[in-house]
Amino acid sequence: MLNIPGQALEYWITSFVWAFARISGFMLMFPVTGSFLPTSIRLLMTAVFSGAVLMAQPWNPPPGFTVSALSASSMLIALGEFFTGLMFGMVLTLWFSLFSMAGHTIGLQMGLGMAQMNDPAGGISVTVVSQIYQLAAMLMFFLVDGHTTVIAIVLESFKTIEPGSFFQVLQSAEQLLHFTGWIFSAALLLAMPALIALLIINISFGFMSRAAPQLNLLSLGFPLSLLSGLLIICLSFEQFSAPFRRFTREAILLLRQLAQT
């Protein structure tokens, strides 16, 4: 029969709870798993990853380890670990909203502001064009193995960020605020070619209305603007991989910086 000392068993249970708290916070905010997977699958994945973190821990508790698994200090540390995981997941949530914002801006310029669909990742209604950009970003994220890279960074953060270091991680929140402002400029940069092309088309309609006032531009301009916008989106997707890789690289770089705090 396996004889496990009580102190070692308590150390394993406490480490598992702390790892489970951090990973569960990340899984809650991670766009790939936040709303696309059932709760039972997310809990199972969190338990598996927490077990992997636990296997990497030393078998014997370090000297001076006196924290009980059910003590108030242990629960506070677990709460801090949960918020640490939320911060990691927030980076990917902001990255995902970049493409949603760019598609939403293009959809409004095309006149598709009323054509909206439910966004399962954000829980809000977005335009159809925004949904197309989200799905394209999600597929390319899987194709470049972004999900494995991000999960590996979160698991490796247990080597650099010890449990109970939430306030140390919170000091890096300023980088997250700067990243939030960068999201708006990146979304505008991604949507800029389509916006400029649609603006030129709308200006052409204005000249047409001045040259031939008898034309009914309400019935003529909207279909042409819609077809032109769809054609522009098809052409822009041929160059979608270059900005996608650059924006994803920035998000993963920020995630690494937070994980190495």
UniProtKB/TrEMBL annotation:
<dbReference type="Pfam" id="PF01311">
    <property type="entry name" value="Bac_export_1"/>
</dbReference>
<comment type="function">
    <text>Role in flagellar biosynthesis.</text>
</comment>
<dbReference type="InterPro" id="IPR002010">
    <property type="entry name" value="T3SS_IM_R"/>
</dbReference>
<feature type="transmembrane region" description="Helical">
    <location>
        <begin position="12"/>
        <end position="30"/>
    </location>
</feature>
<keyword id="KW-0966">Cell projection</keyword>
<comment type="similarity">
    <text>Belongs to the FliR/MopE/SpaR family.</text>
</comment>
<keyword id="KW-0472">Membrane</keyword>
<keyword id="KW-1133">Transmembrane helix</keyword>
<keyword id="KW-1003">Cell membrane</keyword>
<keyword id="KW-0969">Cilium</keyword>
<keyword id="KW-0812">Transmembrane</keyword>
<keyword id="KW-0282">Flagellum</keyword>
<feature type="transmembrane region" description="Helical">
    <location>
        <begin position="176"/>
        <end position="205"/>
    </location>
</feature>
<protein>
    <recommendedName>
        <fullName>Flagellar biosynthetic protein FliR</fullName>
    </recommendedName>
</protein>
<feature type="transmembrane region" description="Helical">
    <location>
        <begin position="217"/>
        <end position="237"/>
    </location>
</feature>
<dbReference type="InterPro" id="IPR006303">
    <property type="entry name" value="FliR"/>
</dbReference>
<keyword id="KW-0975">Bacterial flagellum</keyword>
